[in-house]
Amino acid sequence: ETGVTQSPTHLIKTRGQQVTLRCSSQSGHNTVSWYQQALGQGPQFIFQYYREEENGRGNFPPRFSGLQFPNYSSELNVNALELDDSALYLCASSPTPLTALEEKLFFGSGTQLSVL
Amino acid sequence: KQEVTQIPAALSVPEGENLVLNCSFTDSAIYNLQWFRQDPGKGLTSLLLIQSSQREQTSGRLNASLDKSSGRSTLYIAASQPGDSATYLCAVYSNYQLIWGAGTKLIIKP
Q: Which residues of A touch B101 (CB under 8 A)?
């Protein structure tokens, strides 16, 4: 049990739609990062939020956006869904960005998104 | 650009064997290297974290080594058990993000 929860566990959407995925971090963890994992591949870093501000981003287009709230919850929003967005989306939390360098990350179980 | 490669992609061994999983990376400028386990339908569990200044870490039957100069890490699993069956991924922390390999799918046969 990592203390990081994600919802929903599974989601089916149609191409062109918008989706919001949610993550609840451990209490006291001010840093959350999001990853996309396509089938058979390793996760790809989407972005990281620290104290409600984005402070790092991977190679993903602007239609991938996020929010982080003071209550240690966060959202990943994807607009104009494409078929290639079908993947497992994972969030991870840590107390600070620097802590992430020194300590293990705690991951949620992920949201499996299917775009038809 | 940092790239992480894991070989083999899949491995099947009888229960009780010792085994080694390999991970290589192209840029030695890393903060740390982590080994994760992923079970079907579940998230990622961090097994071992090796800081860039360290050469190995041990946890129970698991031992991970790091050779930054050659861009390699190995995960050694002793006395394998069916419960060890999972996908094992390595990731390096580089440029403030984790960069991952594609993983090795491990099957331990009873």
A: 42
Residue A87 pairs with which residues in a beta bridge?
A: A113
Q: Which of B38, B44, B104 to mutate to test the interface with A (most CBs of A within 10 A)?
A: B44
Q: Which chain A residues are within 8 Å of B49, Cβ to Cβ?
A: 103-104
Query: Which candidate, A4, A7, A2, places its Cα nearest to that of A22?
Result: A7
Chain A residues with CB under 8 Å of B97 CB are: 33, 45, 48, 56, 58
Q: What is the CA radius of gyration of chain A?
A: 13
Q: Do B103 and B7 touch, CB atoms closer than 8 A? A: no
Mean pLDDT of all residues in A46-57 = 91
pLDDT at A35 over 90: yes
Summarize pLDDT for B36-90 with one digit per residue, the tens.
999 987 788 989 999 999 999 999 999 999 999 999 999 999 999 999 999 999 9
CB contact under 8 A, A42 and B96: no
Tokens read off for B106: 């491990």
| Dist. CA B84–CA A54, nearest whole Å | 37
